[in-house]
Fold this sequence. Notes:
Blueprint: E1 2-8, H1 38-43, E2 53-63, H2 64-76, E3 89-90, E4 96-107
Antiparallel strand pairs: 1-4, 2-4, 3-4
Amino acid sequence: MYQSSEPTSEATFASNSEPASGLASEASSGPKPGPETPSSAAAQPSRSRDPKRKDVRHILLGEADAVHLDILSMHVLGYAEATAWSRPQPTGKPNEVVRVLIKTQLVE
């Protein structure tokens, strides 16, 4: 059974100053790593230390206004705070963005 806890602030795709050519992970110090590939993002371990807590990444990809409306809809439904999502990151396609939410689930 899964129990949802409060969404955590995301550590991926967080900076509004990232280049459009890649989506890099945020680092606390030192140079930023190169663009993530889907396989490297999937291989990252869970950020939670409790083995009963698992991270789930929600990724919205689409036109900026449609992505924003979906985020607001999920907020109204009580699923996730609108402010818990990352800032829009350009994908390189006109008016297309990606936004990420990481929620921690309690696995019983």
